[in-house]
Amino acid sequence: MTGLGAIVVGGRERVVSVVDDSVISVRDAVTGEERQTIGIIRGSANAVCAVGLWSEPVIATAGDDGFIRLWDPSSGGRRTTLISRAGRVTAMCAVTLGDAALIAAVGDDGVIRLWDPVTGRVKDSLRGGSNPILAAVMRFTSGRRPTGAFLTGTRAMCAVRHDGRTWLAATGDEHTVLLWSPKTRELRRIAADGARKATGLDAFTLNGNAQLAIVGPTPVVSLVDLAAGRIRGTLTGHTGRVEGVCSFVHAGRALLATASIDRTVRVWDAASGACEMTIPVHDPATRCAWIGDRLVIGLETGILAVRLNVQPAT
Fold first, then answer.
1. Sign of torsion, CA 122 244 11 61?
2. Is residue 295's pLDDT more than 90?
3. Number of helices (H) and strands (E), helices first, in the chain?
4. In angstroms, what is the C-alpha Rg of the chain?
5. To 5 degrees, how large is the angle CA 103–CA 106–CA 108?
6. Lowest-confidence region among 124-128, 144-148, 278-282, 289-293
7. What secondary structure letter does DSSP report for 134?
8. pTM, rounded to two decimals
């Protein structure tokens, strides 16, 4: 499973998943009944998210063919197609700036583009890739890194509220988290060993401070405090690489869930980093999301929804 998320249709929550890299499945979050199977996407779908447009949200998918497609979750029909012309799209997320619901996407060319899905046009962009030789020369001669060398190989991206603004957080091939504020055009970089080749990124708030959870090609989960500008801790316990992460509040507590190919999903206390429970599953777990009052787990062979029993906050 390459994508998992939630969308509200007709006042009911639905689970949206990408199965077999190409088929979009929409299921009722309570009953598990499949409500819609949406088309077949050419190439692999690398990302899926809900975008709040028109009277109800739509489903956005992106993948190897470089197209971002918007789908009606009720009818299964395609609303529109955005052509990125950036090679394959490697990461995508929904972002709200003011009253505008936008789609942030990045592809093989290393450029983060902010799409207006209503007009079908790029509203803003940040170029991440650059000539590696030029970047090396600039680092050697001035000790500075050119703006174009910030991002290469981006595979994870999410929106986060920090310092009263909406930022885009992204990770790539380097040990770095890039923060970009589209409103002010400000760029920040945070050194983070766990960010190299990261495949999952999730934002959450802890005691009023914005945090990021980063997962990638190792069993270790890195936690980044944006205000401090550094890694504040790691979560260890998985024995295989962690492919999915999500944050949620349950029983008055801030929690994290991580999905691993070691056939377990772990639930962690976001503040202390203590593992609250380990959920064994019958297949490698690739995605997880908190939808309604359940932890939804994406497996290589299907979806599992779990009700959690954790101690409430004291």
1. positive
2. yes
3. 1, 27
4. 19
5. 155
6. 144-148
7. H
8. 0.90
C-alpha span between 274 and 255 (Å, rounded): 10
- For tokens 């009944």, the residue is 33
CA 72 to chain centre: 21
Long-range contacts of 292-300 (CB under 8 A, 24+ apart): 292/6, 292/13, 292/29, 292/30, 293/250, 294/29, 295/246, 295/248, 295/257, 295/265, 295/267, 296/4, 296/15, 296/29, 297/259, 297/265, 298/1, 298/4, 298/17, 298/244, 298/259, 299/1, 300/1
One-letter amino acid identity for 214?
A: I
- pLDDT at residue 108, rounded to an integer: 85
Closest CA relative to residue 62, chosen from 78, 83, 79, 45: 45
- For residue range 39-98, list pLDDT tens digits in order: 765 667 778 999 987 677 999 998 888 889 999 998 999 888 998 766 889 999 999 999
The residue count for the chain: 314
Gap between the Cα atoms of 26 and 35, Å rounded: 6
